[in-house]
Input
Amino acid sequence: MNRQVGPLMKGLWGVFLLVLLPTLSLAQPTAAPTSMSDAEATQRANALLRRMTLAEKIGQMEQTAGQPMYTPSAEADRLASSGESGNFLFFTDPVRINELQKLAVTKTRLHIPLTFGYDVIHGFRTIAPIPLAMASSWDPALVTRTTAMAAREARAAGITLAFGPMVDIARDARWGRIMEGAGEDPYLGSRMAAAQVRGFQGDYIGAPGHILACVKHFAGYGAANGGRDYDETDISDELLWNVYLPPFHAAVKAGAATFMSAYQSLNGVPATGNAWLLRDVLRNTWGFKGAVLSDWDSVKSLQTHGFASSAADAAIRAARAGVNMEMTSTTYRDHLPEAVKKGEISEATIDALVLPILKLKYQMGLFANPYVDVERFRRETGSPEQRRAARVAAEQTAVLLRNENHLLPLSKSLRSIAVIGPLADSKLDTMGSWAIHGDRRDTVTVADGLRQLLPQTQIAVTKGVEIERGSPTIFDEQVPPEKLQFTTPAEKKAEFDRALDLARQADVSILVLGEAQTMSGENASRARLSLPGEQEKLLQAVTALGKPVVLVLMTGRPLDISWAAEHVPAILNIWYPGTEGGHAVANLLFGEANPSGHLPVTWPREAGQEPLFYNYKLPQNPENTAHRYWDLTSSPLYPFGYGLSYSSFSLSNVAVNSPQVKPGTPLRATVTLRNTSRVAGAQVVQLYVHQRAGGASRPNRELKAFEKVMLAPGESRDVTLTVPAQELSYWSPVLRHQVLEPGTFDVWVGFDSTTDNHATFQVTAGLDDMTAVAK
Ligand code: BGC
Output
């Protein structure tokens, strides 16, 4: 793969203005419990470090890409046996992993085991829905469970380090990697970040069946100019602290063991050489004690950023900034020994970088037991239990966007169904991007799922149109794309007509449209958000037949479905649902499961609206925000937090139980949620706040709490949402630290970010109270 491109205060408002020094206000990370105490691991790592030569130390700071396509096998063997590389990535075969481990522990002088990293983004062999879909569940416990299942499969193969979670906030659907994160919101993103860290790592570092999390990409990668992957990001300090950094901080508080520096330049300084980010913020302010990895070649590319003057300078700058481990490029190995000799970097700096790597190897139990049980790997991967977890996740993550006249769920007594679209029967696309190790043969497509659920129904499946990206992707070698079936104009026309014929003959048409998996993910940004190829034309032609049509959308990002949103009665967005996607979709379409996903991103009408997000600062004429363009409504097609269900729900007016909020006295808001339908279902109750006035303008609305509640038909429940006072604080661009400002706040509780179920409360507090909380 060519990754070259990848590369707080009293005063101003009187006695009530509160000051929260960042270090005090932001709770310090509670050190995650480990299989080996932190003190013991530190002591052992230090003892080992004292015996190591400089070359051996620097070997521990290298991570080499495996698989013959990056490093020939003999060379990987040599690097492992010589200790020149203490870490590898992209090995997935447990037999080969054991072989390399054996070389490292038997041939190197100090018998130091290797770590093996891999992109366990939404599964290993059993693929779960993509992370953006998982965020749509609004169910952190589900996310933890599903991530833990992925960790288990990966650990069984010998992988010790997941390159995830990806916690980049993304406010622009053109950016291909929006599919890898939790969307646009810092609060939801923080909850999802912590949930994934817990899923990967378990209760402590080294927990059996778990692996190290690597939180990426630090930081600001998702704000690429124009949504163009890898391009620079310019993010104000206010947005950085209040929007882009919180999920990273949440991951540190959850005990994340490692971080990955981002590719891009952040406010002029490449992230991988950014000492402010990697040292001042991550380690000194947040107290992170783990290891920072670079991204692929991102140390070497400090040069191409026009930042470092040479490869040697790149190595020195990354090391000084605090990058413990270099991924794939070898500037550390090639240049740090000489730099130490010349006094350009001290050996003490090298030691401080190596120490966390050795500690993690101890805590992961690799010194005690470097090998994996290959039989266990065979038993545990792709197991029915894994598949069940993937199916449940897919059912919980689909978002029902439209359902006119209750077209869905469909009746199981339908005689015939036409299943149409390029994605209807594509195993590869159903898994989605970043499913490199997923076995497409395991995958259940929408067509498969329908056939299995409805053996008595006549099900005709055809593509209608084909889609192709039309330009190479960096993954083509690892995941060879499928070949097109219809190439001549005549073949294409015949296939289009065939689809129309099948739709004409069927009781219902289910169109599975969207993006092929190559069209989202890394290196997959788009200028347009339209349905690729002739898919909309097909959708229009089928809809024109006047028979019932359901659009099942398979995608890694919001797409321009403005036409469908007006003309197609039912739209179910399934994102990329993974290995068990087809079973989940069939269950959802036929009422065996009830959609409960809600959007973690604002859904635009067209690409020209991007970046589009719900938590904007109020302008001088807020009443006109939907009319900012003369040629298009500027409001979203679907708002953040939106999602329908087969159940219907009512919600009482919001009652604020704690009208006076201060440190130690959180906001408590109660609503009564009732399932007013005959169908059991889950609803996501969401709480948004707005600070009316203060030292700076605060967003129109900000999500601060949510709860997913499952109700039986007719059941009602009181739901109390609690927001600690600290959650109402923000980083002030005026005072340049975290503040909690007393005053009037609005609160809304409802089913999406546009709810008008409103009340108010006051933040009142004294400095002393705040200091007490900060401690
Ligand atoms: C991506 C990372 C990924 C790494 C290893 C890079 O190109 O930016 O997210 O973990 O490759 O695959």
